[in-house]
Automatic annotation (TrEMBL):
Family: Belongs to the membrane fusion protein (MFP) (TC 8.A.1) family.
Alphabetized Pfam families for the sequence: Beta-barrel_RND_2, BSH_CzcB
GO cellular component, one term: macrolide transmembrane transporter complex
One biological process term in Gene Ontology: xenobiotic detoxification by transmembrane export across the plasma membrane
Designated name of the protein: Multidrug resistance protein MdtA
Top-level taxon of origin: Bacteria
């Protein structure tokens, strides 16, 4: 601000130091006024936001806590096997001219594993096609002669049979040429090489060994006292200690009805997704089955559990507000899980929208998802 302008506001001829003191008081009053204005505005805004927050009700979906009998889990050891294992063989004899794969390669179904020499077969095919063409000409002539009563029906049949034989000969050679290209029967990994370029293969000789590992089957020898409680389709949680106790969920696909005569155990196979190729054939596994004695348990949908800071909680819906309850998870059964804590069946637990709730928060129930109302 221009000092001369401020001085003209004063009707007295004041000393300069008095004028400077007045200027400072002027700025002080101005800053104080601005500060008071912004403080009031901020208080109003915060108060309005707080009022809005207090009136906001978080939308949630709830589910009923139930009591049910479940079988206690029993852990058994097993071994991982490939879903498929095959020694790919040659169905025709010939000289290997191409062998583009090697041990450890991943190949897709239909990918070429080896090529055999087809030169002699193609020469034979050329001659066979010429014979077929000649036989077709003879057949057309014979038809004309037959229609003119120049030859008998049996003579026409003889010419037609000759044509059919030539067609079959061509198809047979074409099939042999196709067999010279040996292809992968399924998606998998090459584990062994049984031939090489320049080797003569006889019919039935091995070309490669393959494993299909996008899924694996864990073979578990199950004691006879538990086998009665198992059925195809049952879920099993499998742990692989060699992979840092990695857990995978699988389902029973085979129950072999023949027991081992010495151990009295029945082979049970659990199929597990392995698209990341983490599980290798022959790995040790620990499979858990729900085959133990019956236990009455308090159960909720698995989505009702919130894990935070190394602890487990559930959020109950009580009179339109959130009630936080610490619990301990127990036995899992399909989409349900046992909870151990200060809770009783019949109360509603929040299973959707529970990620950021806090104790005592207002909620609005927008839906229900009780056990038994969802797909297994």
């Amino acid at each position: 601000m221009d000092n001369s302008g401020l001085k003209t506001l004063c009707s007295y001829n004041l000393p300069d130091y008095v004028f400077q003191a007045g200027k400072k008081r002027y700025y002080l009053f101005l800053c104080t006024g601005i500060l008071i204005f912004y403080t009031i505005a901020l208080f109003f805004i915060c108060g309005r936001s707080l009022a809005q927050e207090q009136t906001f009700k978080a939308p949630v979906v709830v589910s009923r806590i139930i009591e049910m009998d479940v079988r206690q889990p029993v852990k058994m050891v097993g071994t991982a096997f490939p879903l498929r294992e095959s020694i790919v063989a040659c169905s025709i004899e010939g000289l290997v001219v191409e062998f583009p794969v090697k041990r450890g390669d991943y190949v897709k179904k239909g990918q070429v594993l080896a090529e055999l020499n087809t030169t002699s077969l193609k020469i034979r095919l050329k001659g066979a096609k010429a014979d077929k063409h000649l036989a077709l000409i003879e057949y057309e002539r014979a038809k004309e002669l037959y229609e003119g009563d120049a030859i008998s029906h049996s003579e026409l049949d003889e010419v037609e049979t000759k044509l059919i034989a030539q067609e079959a000969n061509v198809e047979g050679i074409e099939d042999d040429i196709g067999k010279c290209t040996i292809k992968a029967p399924f998606d998998g990994r090459i584990t062994e090489e049984h031939t090489e370029v320049g080797q003569w293969l006889k019919k039935g000789d091995s070309v490669v060994s393959m494993l299909q590992l996008n899924y694996v089957k864990v073979r578990v020898p199950v004691p006879e006292k538990y086998i009665q409680y198992m059925k195809v389709g049952d879920e099993s949680e499998v742990i692989f200690p060699a992979l840092g106790n990695m857990k995978r969920t699988g389902h029973i696909v085979h129950i072999v009805p023949q027991a081992d005569k010495r151990a009295r155990t029945f082979p049970v196979y659990v199929k597990i997704d392995n698209k990341d190729d983490a599980i290798k054939s022959g790995m040790f596994a620990e499979a858990t089955f729900e085959t133990g004695s019956l236990l009455s348990a308090t159960m909720i949908l698995k989505d009702g559990i919130v894990r935070r800071g190394g602890m487990e909680f559930i959020y109950l819906a009580v009179d339109g507000k959130v009630a936080e309850v610490p619990i301990q998870a127990g036995i899992a059964h399909k989409d349900l899980i046992q909870i151990i804590g200060n809770v009783k069946p019949g109360i509603d637990v929040i299973v959707r929208g529970n990620e950021r709730l806090r104790n005592g928060q207002d909620i609005q129930i927008t839906g229900r998802m009780d056990p038994g109302e969802i797909d297994d």
